[in-house]
Design a protein that fits this description.
The longest helix is centred in the last third of the chain and has 11 residues. About 15% of the residues lie in helices and about 35% in strands. Strands 1, 2, 3, 4, 5 and 6 form a six-stranded antiparallel beta sheet that branches. It has about 120 residues and is mainly beta. The chain has one domain.
């Protein structure tokens, strides 16, 4: 149905963008697997006085999560499924995020070092 397309799921608790897995889902009807998922959210940029849209890969730092997310879409859901235009800005941001080299190590300073006295 959406083979080789990047899909944007809008209307649930979390907005996802990614590749829709075409195979039958192991959980059955109304379940879908999104490969290489990114979450989309907005945040206020006070310095620039604007709202920025953020596209973030779901695998997280140090590969915390696997490269898919399973979502259930009930029959009476008002969830929208949109196909990204391969020439559009959101597709470009998604591609950059999916192909970005993730950090191998994340070093957090100890509490005593981080707090100014």
């Amino acid at each position: 149905m959406y083979k080789a397309e990047i899909i944007h799921f809008i209307g649930g608790l979390t907005e996802f963008v990614g590749e829709l897995d075409q195979s039958e889902h192991p959980n059955g009807l109304n379940w879908y697997r999104i490969r290489n998922p990114c979450i989309i959210f907005t945040r206020e940029n006070k310095e620039m006085k604007r709202i920025d849209t953020v596209v973030a890969l779901l695998s997280g730092p140090q590969k915390v999560y696997r490269k898919f997310v399973d979502i259930r879409i009930p029959e009476d859901s008002i969830l929208e499924i949109r196909v990204l235009d391969k020439n559009g800005a959101l597709y470009e941001h998604y591609s950059k995020e999916v192909n970005r080299i993730m950090p191998e190590k994340i070093i957090l300073p100890e509490h005593g070092i981080a707090v100014a006295h």
